[in-house]
Amino acid sequence: MRAKDQLLGAHTSIQGGVNAAIPLAQKLGFTAMQIFTKNNNRWSAPPLKEEEATSFREGIAASGIKFVMAHDSYLINLGSPDDEIFNKSVNAMTDELERCEMLGIPQLNFHPGAHLGEGEAFGIKRIASALDIIHERTPGFKVKSMIELTAGQGSALGYRFEHARDIIATVKHPERVTVCIDTAHIFAAGYDIKDPVKYQEVIAEFDCVIGLERLQAFHFNDSKKPLGSRVDRHDHIGAGFIGLEGFRNILNDSRLFRVPKILETPKGKEQLEDLENLARLRELIEV
Ligand code: ZN
Ligand code: MN
Ligand code: MN
């Protein structure tokens, strides 16, 4: 793939239903988008209707949107030591995978989870066991479970590449698991993608620890918080501590042209801010 053909877009509102995201994303010129498939602050939602799903799949196929990913509910914690929350989380993520499968969405992004004081080794095992239950309940599904790397706030796991590696190494179906790099998250976690030399080391480390072939999406966010702060605050592209330099490093790395890049930067209802952020990104592409 050529540098100019990289898929770019943003998280897109489903106000009015999942199908409402398609014309909005098209109007904004996205070639990639992320959606929630339901209200992300709720545990459950009415099931998707088959007509709605068919219309979504046909709408995407007929659009210029070449990649769609979903982000799961913020309530889900696959690492929870509390059995009730753990079971609710497993049920909710199973439902989200089913929604994605119906919609033809190939990647369901999720935050690995928080151990809430039980320790990282416990958390990793707990998350892997949750994924095993979820994957056993959804045999043959095409949609992947995509681990989002995190800033490491509180007891959240996923702020080290090794956490993703260990979850993938523990699950029974590693072929169902992919990884998403959120630039703001990994920067806050201490991975310097701004400095061009250190950037090369970070990508080499990812390749060595996880393997670049697992990397199937980027969340492109600048960070309001400095390197290693472990605090997750998204900023507009170029306005934060990563700066344009960091995004230039990624956008001109031919190994990563194939990986879709999705904004999760602050925006209003019309998402016009996304246009400005995307224009800034396109200017950084050199070749
Ligand atoms: Zn996220
Ligand atoms: Mn993200
Ligand atoms: Mn975040």
Instruction: Report the portion of residues in β strands.
Output: 15-25%
For the biggest β-sheet, the strand order reads: 1-2-3-4-6-8-9-12
CA radius of gyration = 18 Å
Oligomer: single chain
Biggest sheet record = 8 strands, parallel, barrel
Give the end-to-end Cα distance, rounded to a whole number of Å. Answer: 12 Å
Contiguous runs where pLDDT drops below 50 for at least 5 residues: none
* DSSP helix fraction: 25-40%
Describe this structure in words.
There is one protein chain. With 287 residues, the protein is an alpha/beta fold. It has one domain (3-284): TIM Barrel, CATH 3.20.20.150. The chain is 38% helix and 16% strand. It contains nine helices and twelve strands. The strands form three sheets. The protein has an eight-stranded parallel barrel. Helix 4 (120-137) packs across helix 5. The longest helix is centred in the first third of the chain and has 21 residues, at 83-103. The relative contact order is 0.14. The structure holds zinc ion and manganese (II) ion (MN) (2 copies). Residues 71, 111, 148 line the site of zinc ion (ZN).
